[in-house]
Amino acid sequence: MSGKETSAPAFAQVYAGASATSNAGEQHSLWIDQQGNVYTSGNNDRGQLCLGGTEPFVNLPNQVSLKGPAVAAAIGEDFTLILLDDGSVYGCGSNEKGELGLGNSVNSVDTPSNDNGLSNIIDLSAGLNHALFQAANGNVYGTGSNIYMQLCEFTDGEPVTTPKV
Do the Cβ atoms of 108 and 95 come closer than 8 Å? Predict the structure, then answer.
């Protein structure tokens, strides 16, 4: 976080990005170390690296500032979701189709936001432009693109912009 280069820590989990184009330069990646620290690198044109700002490309992993240890993550085309050990979900990057669950008035964020109303989440997953969240009580929430009804909700192709059971 201080901008100084250091040796890589021991990583516990890694996540590869996805893209609708064949250009690997438009993808990003995320690593979680054994202490729950998160690192990101790659494309950042929508703030999806959660580092503050939208520098187009970050070629070395940088540590993301979070309020607690991460236990899982999910990466979509232009967004990132991070699950903390307290069950909260933080997202950054594009919210154009509701990918982050931040409603329809937020286009994107470049620092981790948990204004999605989610809590007690135990697992999460992301598609190209949508996300799914499993809560401890068994409920599954979806948000984002629903053009193919991938959120199991009839919306006439309109996105779901806040998490919905």
Answer: yes
Residue 101 tokens read as: 């669950």
CB 126 within 8 A of CB 79: yes
Amino acid (1-letter code) at residue 83: L
How many other C-beta atoms can be found within 10 angstroms of the C-beta atom of residue 32? Answer: 23
- Quote the CA–CA distance of 100 and 92 in Å, as a whole number: 7
Single out the residue of 114, 15, 160, 9 nearest to residue 73, CA to CA.
15
Q: Within its chain, how far is the Cα of 153 from the centroid? A: 22
Tell me if the domain spanning 11-164 has CATH number 2.40.370.10: no
Q: How many Å separate Cα 160 from the centre of its chain?
A: 16
Per-residue pLDDT reduced to its tens digit, 93-131 = 999 999 999 999 999 999 999 999 999 999 999 999 999
Structure tokens at 117: 């109303």
**Whole-number Å distance between alpha carbons of 69 and 64:** 11
